[in-house]
Every structure is written in structure tokens, then in C-alpha cells.
Design brief:
Helix content is 42%, strand content 26%. The chain is built from 3 helices and 3 strands. It is α+β, with helices and mostly antiparallel strands and 76 residues long.
Amino acid sequence: MKSMIEYLVKELVDEPDQVVINELPGEESTTYEVRVAPGDLGKVIGKQGRIANALRTVAKAVAMKDKKKVYVEIIA
């Protein structure tokens, strides 16, 4: 899951070497913190959050196969 999110985000940004994904496992869910360069934040969020929501939807769809919950947070 982490590598899939990392791949998608790196394809969106201008500075892919600054993309860092932190995996925070919890009891019932896993949270993925996506850190990008401040200049790339808008590209990852998109207009009205459409790209960010699409990333979350893809992550949740993959997690549904394993009956897990995932959250994706985007941080500058």
C-alpha cells in the first residue's frame, strides 16, 4: 500500500525526491502521512481537493480487499 501511494504521489509532483510517506499503524486502521515540498502541495491536493480525494479513494479500494481501514493525510 505504501509503495502504491508513493508511486502515485511521485508522479504528480515536480520534486519527487522530497516525497516521504510515513505509515502509522493503529488498532483498527492505518494512517499514511504524505509529506511533499511546499511548492508541490497544491498539485497533490488539486482543485477543490479532487486529487487528494482520488488518492484516498484508490487507497481505500485496495484496503477493502484485505478488509482494512486506511486514511491518507497530506502534509506540507
